Amino acid sequence: SFTTRVPWWPLISIMGTFSSGKSSFINSFLEQKIQRTGNQAVDDKFTVICFSKEEESRTLPGLALDSDPRFPFYQISRQIEQVVSGEGRRIDAYLQLKTTASEKLRGKILIDSPGFDADDQRNATLKISDHIMDLSDLVLVFFDARHPEPGAMKDTLEHLVANTISRPDSNKFLFVLNQVDCTVQEDNLEDVVAAWQRALSQAGLMAGRFYQIYNIDSASPIANEALKNRYEGKRREDMEEITDRIRRVEVERAYRIIGVLEHTAKLILDQAIGKLTDLIGRWRKKLLLLDTIGLGIAALLTLGVVRSFNLDLSHLNPALWPAMNQTQTLVHGISLGVALILLWAGHLQLLRPLAGWMVTRNLSKEIRDADLLELVSKGFAKSTRDPLFVLFNSPAGWSGQAEKTILRVLKDADSYIQGLNDQFTNPSGRQDTPNPTIPHHDTV
Fold it and tell me: Residue 197 and residue 182: Cα distance in Å, rounded?
């Protein structure tokens, strides 16, 4: 549903390779040492960091996230189980929740992710990474300037770059080349940046740039004053841009919420309903054919049972004929009743699912868009669940009133966008333009 596709609070995720300085960046940004740092993969879990009034930081297990619909990992264990059997029960091995009193995180959620260059649970990790990227309002992708061989990061580049550039929300991805102070000795920062830019262009990213930063507290001293000023100036400039994007995430999020709402409404109206109607029509034809075959088989079996109970009464005392005829009639009636019950049970438990499988077995090949596939799959399951729905042509829940509701949602979305524009822009320069009240996410 729409409400589970957008988390309750603005979401900023930190992704990238192992030892690329993600945790150090988080500690520096929050001005608290909340994440462990080091040259090895010290944090091997997805860590959701949120604000708390308590000064003492707490660490809670992954179950706290899997069971709370307000957080971006609600029931993620089910998705993990579908990817890697048995791993859904090990949710605490993948997720943890940490709290901090840093005011910079009030009203926001920050996610630190493990690198996945060499992960034993790689498939599950990638599944969670995709889930995060879909929900996030801002994604910082970190690379390590100390390892200027981008070819070794081929899988990471493909997943974090090639799979994101065609997204409609690709502007929420910022690529950060961290720990650039390692280039001071050779003074070859431009060469290292150029190597990574070539790697990104090979992965398909033809525009954009690297933000170039490093942790000034752990950096080696720079003796050359001019060189020091150049490096620190570049770091300060890029850090200001990154932190500015983090500050503006709530404004961008308001547009994104409405964008997701509008996208979902259009997807339902323009594509999902038509595809569902087609699938349901094909399903009804398949089911009718299977029911006809099942009815024929049931009729033959019933006829066989009836014939086997056609008794020869000629050798019996005529006084017994009425009682035997009643017995024979009763057996025939019971046989017919059992046949009808079995036929109905077979229709519900076997033929309906079989017809559904025949229609949807190649659905993922027919529908490439993941959002549309989810809508159609859930809509088809709901529409074919009711035993009496075979009598109807339209998808379950769809009506003229439902269509009017979708059209009203689209109209309201346009009004909300205009309201946001009026709040954050003022091309005319007039001072008397009122600021409209923008509905809160929960209200939308």
Answer: 18
**Residue that is written with structure tokens 């024929």 in the block:** 296
- In one-letter notation, the amino acid at residue 156 is T
Alpha-carbon distances of 136 from 108, 139, 274, 373, rounded to whole Å: 11, 6, 30, 21
What single-letter amino acid sits at 360?
A: T
Decide: helix, strand or coil at residue 399.
coil
Taking residue 193's Cβ as centre, other Cβ atoms within 10 Å add up to 18
Helix (H, G, I), strand (E, B) or coil at 284: helix
- What whole-number distance in Å separates Cα of residue 171 and Cα of residue 219? 30
Contacts for 290 with CB less than 8 Å, ≥ 6 apart: 351, 354, 355
Grouping H, G, I as helix, E, B as strand and the rest as coil, residue 7 is coil
In sequence order, which residues have a C-beta less than 8 Å from that of residue 335 and are 6 or more positions away? 302, 305, 306, 309
pLDDT by 10-residue block (mean), the chain, 444 residues: 68 82 85 70 75 87 82 78 75 85 88 67 73 84 74 63 67 85 78 77 65 81 84 90 88 81 89 92 87 78 63 52 61 66 72 86 86 88 77 82 92 87 73 50 44
Q: Are 20 and 150 in contact (CB under 8 A)?
A: no
User: From CA 196, how far away is CA 190, in angstroms rounded?
Assistant: 10
Spatial contact of 359 and 279, defined as CB atoms under 8 Å apart: yes
CA separation for the pair 261, 444 (Å, rounded): 9
pLDDT of residue 279: 92
Q: What is the DSSP letter of 8?
A: S
β partners of residue 100: 51
pTM above 0.85?
no
Phi, psi of 173 (to 5 degrees): -95, 125
**Tokens 């088809």 identify what position?**
380
The three-state secondary structure class of 227 is helix
